[in-house]
Amino acid sequence: MKPGVLSKTPAARPTVSMPRLSPSGWILLALLPVLAAAPLVLPTYQVTLANNIGIFALATLGLVLLTGVAGMTSFGQAAFIGVSAYATAYLATVSAADLPAPLAWMAGSPLAGLAVGLLLTLAIATVLGAVTLRLSGHYLPLGTIAWGLSLFYLFGNLEFLGGHTGLSGIPALSLFGIAFDKAETLFYLIWAVLLLAVVATLNLLDSRVGRAIRALRGGQRMSESMGVDSFRAKMTAFLVAALYAGLAGWLYAYTQRFVSPAPFSLQAGIDFLFMALIGGVGQVWGAVIGAAGVTFAKQWLQDLLPHLLGRTGNFEAIVFGLLIVLLMQRLPGGIAGWIAKTFERRRQRPATLESMDLPDAEPLPRRPMPQKGEVVLEAKGVTRRFGGLVANRDISFSVRAGEILAVIGPNGAGKSTLFNQLSCVDRPTSGEILFRGERIDGRTARAMAGAGLSRSFQHVKLLPTMSVLENVAIGAHLRGSKGVAAAALRLDRAEEARLLAEARRQLVRVGLGQYLHAEAGSLALGQQRILEIARALCADPCLLLLDEPAAGLRFLEKQALAELLVKLRSEGMAILLVEHDMDFVMGLVDRVYVMEFGERIAEGPPETIQTDPAVLEAYLGGIE
């Protein structure tokens, strides 16, 4: 087709401008009429069951974000529901005379109960998260069990909350003159809140903040080196999960109109985790599927088993446990995960840049590059000891803007240790490391990402199930500023378009423009290494540290990489690379720094290093 033909064809214009719905958008469109009609056609008992499912799904949605997406297992979600439910029930039943005069207006106010319940839940979650989220491994879930039990017993031991008897006599909910005194009217409120939470969660995950949260699961070290504050991302996921639990607690109090400690026990927390696992712990819609599946399965088993066995008892718990084990074996990703994979195989992803639905956006601002020849990185007498082992001894060199320096040496020469110190993953035992004249040893890798130092890794670190485009966009994290609220309300679209456009530009720059939508884990090893360079470039660095960038690349790929590095050098970037491929190094770099047993044995231009007797002796004829 010739240029301009499409624009001259009137019939083609609507096709180009038509919005494309995501799978979640189609699900919402399909659900809305079903939910609108449900209270009109279902008996009251079924509507009440659907109300419970909506509340459970809202609480489970928080666990999907916290456990499935961020990788932090929590057994305390039910306890957070209890905090909000008790705050709501107390304010709904207390008399104005029993409250301090400035707070008397809160008595009997549903909105005051909602505000206090959410604020109290978030305050407790902030304190508990500040302590618990610093734990790792199995200590994290054990920590959530500990404070979950503490809150459960606290509910039963506070007399003003009714002790173990609980609080009863909660009046029917009334908001803005609308009475929610029946299961049918509560249904619309509960499911409206749930769907809004689902949309907010989908928006959040499809954002700069969402990428930081998703990177927590298997990519913390990588994301930290790109400027992501991992602890802040953890707290964000934790507090959003607590917020959903608080909303669920408020709805629960007005649905049941009675609150006691039993529904907020550790067992209830385990049940919510089961809902997330069965529905699909990594899928937002898995919260709804899991809550519905568990609720209906329990009801069905409670009705069926007494007839089959001829006696009553908690047999449904035994059968339900076996069903969960079987489901986890057959569908480890849950029901929603299985559905997503099935449709993913059928849906063709765009493979080329031309088919991308990414509009051009205004380029992000760039940092001023140093003047050519300016010393960007300098090591002065760097020594690193591990007990009695000296990994680096008195290492000194500098890297200038517009220069490529290679650090080479046999295996065990101390190159990786030095690289970790230069990138602020480790710090020297003695000596100094200067970046643009400022001492940086002891600073964090995250701080250095903001200063203009970016790196790749010896062993590729990426998020395999995330798209190539989003993996690279993580590199631009510090070049955006929109937070959680803007992401949830989709007010960050202009900034997000600029971040993704930058990621696309860098991918095209390194020759991976045709893989934008592919899963990063599906790329060949050499392509994954190139992806890491694109991600590093997305951070707009003035110093690029590359750890064996040519490893796994084919001949033509190495040529393309060399051309890219030469172009970056001409733009004034300083580049330090650790590499084993001598053919690649000697035809590319300006200077070579040779190490053996943690010490410098030679330094100079490639032609000098190739004939240096000490270097030839160290390598014994070549490098592995």
UniProtKB/TrEMBL annotation:
Chain ranges passing through the membrane: 53-71, 78-97, 103-131, 186-205, 235-253, 273-297, 317-340
GO molecular function: ATP binding; ATP hydrolysis activity; branched-chain amino acid transmembrane transporter activity
Residue stretches making up the ABC transporter domain: 377-622
InterPro entries: AAA+_ATPase, ABC_AA/LPS_Transport, ABC_transp_permease, ABC_transporter-like_ATP-bd, BCA_ABC_TP_C, LivM-like, P-loop_NTPase
Cellular localization per UniProt: Cell membrane
Name of the protein this chain belongs to: Amino acid/amide ABC transporter membrane protein 2, HAAT family /amino acid/amide ABC transporter ATP-binding protein 1, HAAT family
Keyword Nucleotide-binding found: yes
Signal peptide span: none
Pfam assignment, any one: BCA_ABC_TP_C
Membrane topology: Multi-pass membrane protein
Keywords: ATP-binding, Cell membrane, Membrane, Nucleotide-binding, Transmembrane, Transmembrane helix, Transport
Keyword Ubl conjugation: no
SUPFAM superfamilies given in the database record: P-loop containing nucleoside triphosphate hydrolases
GO cellular component assignments: plasma membrane
Source species: Azospirillum oryzae
High-level lineage: Bacteria, Pseudomonadati, Pseudomonadota, Alphaproteobacteria, Rhodospirillales
